[in-house]
Amino acid sequence: MATITTDDDDLWFRRALDVFEGARYPLHPVGSKLLHFMLDGPEGCDATISASRFEIRYGRNASRHRYLLHPAPAVVSELFRLADAPPAASVRARIGPGMVPWPFDARWLWMDATSTTVSIRIRDATGRTGHPAVDEPLPEAITPPAPRFVDLTSPLRCPHCTRPARRYRQLQDGWLVCPACHRSFAQALE
Ligand SMILES: [Zn+2]
Asked: What is the pTM of this model?
């Protein structure tokens, strides 16, 4: 298997930029999986692509997710295709409902490319008409939800590391995060 180097990352980033000038790259399984994550939830996402990172913040999640850069050209190509947008450094469009090949609902898409960064923002468009105006700036970045903690009346043992704790951070989906080992688990709370 080839070693992934920063030179490769620079290449993938330059290819992603080429897409804004009309180049197209076919969607492969890794790219379509990533697009599925980006288009799936109504909470939307903010993605940043540069020569050093491909980072996505999903609306439902406080953490930033980092991905390898090699799917970036295919992901941007497919977004251009879904938007039916001509080559341009800036894209504003309503996309979907569609398939990538997973189904996704109507989304608003903003993409801006500069020589150093590609910014992508996706927001829910179900029940909304029209689309973002051509000259509209990127929407506000997604603000991660404030961490939420639960205080238990008696200590609870983490099922992973078995350390007991009374105070746990609780994720959006209700899972608890162990303060000792940082792993999460489902727990019914009375
Ligand atoms: Zn633990």
From this structure: 0.76
